[in-house]
Amino acid sequence: MSHRKTFAEACVYAVMLFGAHAVSAHPVAATSAEIHEYDSKVDDMSSAGQARNGVRLREVLATLQAMDSRRLTPWERDDREMLMGRIKGTLLDDDEAVQYWRNFNWGMTPCSV
Question: Does the pTM exceed 0.70?
Fold first, then answer.
């Protein structure tokens, strides 16, 4: 028997997933936000760490996109759109950074591509 989340559960899940993983993926930002559980850690800027962050963001984005926006209040729709925009912007920034470093490692600059 498959368990389908109610709409409210899906909303809470998306926000919790985004928030909970954001502080563990970005401990420096968490410390700045007065969340001191991660004070002794720094962000994982390795390729593997960035890949994990991308997977996390894409999972949250997919959860948000799967929501039926007709069931949201206007304010909830706005919040959903803003969060999806922020996630998409972060993914775009990350993808551009990866492309830049690939080019840089081959002795090319973004302008010479």
Answer: no
